[in-house]
Amino acid sequence: MLNKILKDAKTIAIGGHIRPDGDCVGSCMGLYQYIRDNYKDRKADVYLEDIPESLKCLPAVDMIRHEIPADERYDLFISLDCGDKERLGFSGALFDTAGRTYCIDHHISNLGFAQEDYIVPDASSTSELVYNLLEDEKISLDTATALYLGIVHDTGVFQYSCATPSTFRAAARLLEKGVDGPKLIQDTFYEKTYAQNQILGRALLESILFMDKTCIASYVTKKTMDFYGVGVKDMDGIVSQLRLTKGVEVAIFMYEVETNVYKVSLRSKDRIDVCKIARYFGGGGHRKAAGLTMAGTYRDVINNLSERIEAQMENPQGR
Ligand code: 5GP
Ligand code: MN
After folding, report:
1. Which of 18, 114, 187, 250 holds its CA 20 to 30 A away from the CA of 180?
2. What is the pLDDT of residue 70?
3. pLDDT at 317
4. 8 Å CB contact between 236 and 21
């Protein structure tokens, strides 16, 4: 229960991973609103990098802090949806100076970097884990909206195998608080800007099949991103679309973050544990969805990744 996590902390910082996604923002804002609603004598602040435009419809996102005020220090730092300390980014400085640290997460690659934690690798989302810690009758519509959004995003709208009966039960309770589910799903998950659709189209057009058509890969360079006027926050969903290709086991999508440095997203349909591959190269994530950053040309990156994928295909028990 949350009482046990907060204990007597009067000041609480909440932080999530760099390049925050739906579950990261949803879990942070859900917990933040719940503390604000129900622990009026405590001070809570959320620290996140700039969030995607489509998530700015969530209540209270204007309260998110993007930098640390001088000399700010908290009794408790709660890390949400973040698999390792480095991925906290700028808020890691507050983690270091906090009186206590606590981590709530569902990444299988999370080795427990906080003093105490609640890590459930099989959970659909960090938002579902946050929901489990709250007293249902004290959840406001704003808290429910944020947590519902987080669950929707990390389950691909309840599609992935991580969406279990307990996920649906949590989602049902959140809907009963009055969440406008269809609108939230449409506005934050499916809707794309024209430029986002263009870059998706471009990535699909340039994609290649390899390893007997069991893998698909595509990439966009910084130059192409500039041409279409898109940034890193516009890349969501491209790798999921690649993964839908019939016959494909693994999808790889990468975009250039600086010259010959790529942010790579990996998705698996079933057999391949892409988290193992991401971890091998210093990244992490989940069995069927993982990510990493890699240096080299597009070809180098694909060659390095294919080696690991091939090894797993040949020896599914090993790596
Ligand atoms: P995405 O491909 O959407 O960026 O990320 C897929 C999953 O892998 C997410 O759960 C995300 O948190 C995790 N992930 C992505 N990139 C990295 C990374 O560089 N390091 C770690 N540890 N996890 C990552
Ligand atoms: Mn998550």
Report:
1. 18
2. 94
3. 65
4. yes
pLDDT, block means (10 residues), the chain with 319 residues: 97 98 98 98 98 97 97 97 97 98 96 97 97 98 98 97 97 98 98 97 98 97 97 94 97 96 97 96 95 96 97 76
Domain boundaries, the chain: 2-190, 194-318
Q: Counting atoms of ligand 1 from 1, which one is nearest the CA of 264?
A: 2
Beta strands per DSSP E along 211-314: 215-220, 250-258, 261-268, 284-285, 289-295
Ligand 1 contacts CB of residue 162 (under 6 A): no
- Ligand 1 proximity of 23 Cβ (cutoff 6 Å): no
CB-ligand 1 contact for 109 (6 Å cutoff): yes
Shortest CA distance to 23 belongs to which of 286, 254, 274?
286
Domain formed by 194-318, architecture: Roll (3.10)
Please tell me the residue having the least CA distance from ligand 1 atom 19: 292
Q: What is the CATH number of domain 2-190?
A: 3.90.1640.10
Task: Please give the number of the atom of ligand 1 that sits closest to the Cα of 23.
Answer: 10
In angstroms, what is the span from residue 137 Cα to ligand 1's centroid? 33
Max Cα–Cα distance, the chain, nearest Å: 61
